[in-house]
Design goal:
Largest sheet of chain A: 8 strands, mixed
Strand content of chain A: 5-15%
Oligomer: homodimer
Distance between the termini of chain A: 58 Å
Largest interface: A-B, 106 and 106 residues
Mean pLDDT of chain A: 93
Low-confidence stretches of chain A: 270-275
Order of helices and strands of chain A: EHEHEEHEEEHEHHHHH
Structural class of chain A: alpha/beta
Helix content of chain A: 40-55%
Shape of chain A: elongated
Amino acid sequence: MNRSIQDIPIAMVGAGNLATHVARALYNRGFRIVQVYSRTTEAAATLAAEVEADYTTRIADITTQAQLYIVALTDTALTQLLPDLVQGRTHGLWVHTAGSIAASIWQGQTERYGVLYPMQTFSKQSAVDFTTIPVFIESSTEADTELLFSIARCLSGQVYRASSEQRKILHLAAVFTCNFTNHLYTLAHQLLSENQLPFEAMLPLIDETARKIHLLPPAQAQTGPAIRHDYDVINNHLSLLDIHPQMQTIYRIMTESIQRKENERLRGGMEELRE
Amino acid sequence: MNRSIQDIPIAMVGAGNLATHVARALYNRGFRIVQVYSRTTEAAATLAAEVEADYTTRIADITTQAQLYIVALTDTALTQLLPDLVQGRTHGLWVHTAGSIAASIWQGQTERYGVLYPMQTFSKQSAVDFTTIPVFIESSTEADTELLFSIARCLSGQVYRASSEQRKILHLAAVFTCNFTNHLYTLAHQLLSENQLPFEAMLPLIDETARKIHLLPPAQAQTGPAIRHDYDVINNHLSLLDIHPQMQTIYRIMTESIQRKENERLRGGMEELRE
């Protein structure tokens, strides 16, 4: 028995953005990371040094002494390496950290498994406050679900249980709210720099758009020419985008989608129309 | 002569979201709003009471005593009403507040004209800190440009001169970063609620996405399956969206655009490819 939850020996499999942020958060909360595995020496050694762990670049040398194995590899690497990872280490609890991979990927390979999915956009250059990150957990047994819950609660104030199906939807929603949103910023950056305008001028608008969504449901917070059906502005914008056909397509489709959603909302329905 | 800039009598033409926020900001900075015009009595009276002004619902009764007339109407109303507004009041400086309407709309109607465009998303329900809002100004004479600049500087820490062409681009960029971003939140909200998941779980991710853009150029902040060319995840997401064809189209086009932009970036080019 471990005297406290922090005494559980943890192995970190992976040393990328996500692995780094999770390992740091665990380390800062007093957890004991015994080993870091990465394919490359540099990544393994860097993260290991930071969290006072050993490291290895060989799967065969991954420790058998850990009780919790946290796997933060690319989805493809996870799928390929999984049998080699668990072999000889099926005593431990194995969890992956991927939004879109079902917990059942572990089935038939090992008995104790699960998922610990922190939903956030991690860049190595940008520190994050892990305590505010929602973490979604799932496990093969109730005891391990509770164990994961307790560990996750040490890291974050927002821990939820979520099924693999729900987690897929969460990941999909995150792609819309984070990845696609960031790409809209990229397109705006391009338009502005082509016209000698500073991207910084957009920051207050970006901040307010994010802030407002804490106060109003997004459908109610919608503003702009699309929802006003202001075709003078819309057609003007489409003309400005004649030189950027892909942005023009995005503009057109987003405008249509805003108007369609508003029509549904006004009719009181929440289901999307089938086309 | 006015003793101070705050003594200039101002008429507010319009009482919608934008008019309300501009009038409030002026009033709170000690400016004197002499009259509010709105088509509807309720809107006119409400805003007038708040800023201690008179009000009218008749264009013929708009005061001739103002020196600055700020017009915050819909683009269509502005275009239609413009001749009646300025008639008999061409002594004053007339400015509109619309991102996408050129200053030249006033040409031939009156001599002293311009634009005061605060770039923000205004909802009546949500208070904003006007001091952080970028304001873009333009005027027909250098003297009036300086006057507008001084007035705008009383309201906001970020005042820029921008030509009508630049302002159109700013407005277009704002549609991408604010209106389209908010619509992505709406789509995520729908996906989550269909799967019994709380939209609140997205807020830390939304906040971090906005925060990160203060630190990194958007192209460098990009994360997610599109930029990783992770087709397992992408195809999985597209399947989940089979029941939502319009979201599926948005997912596909945004993914392509992210990949195209990244290819351009890696080639070191900034121009968008012609299709």
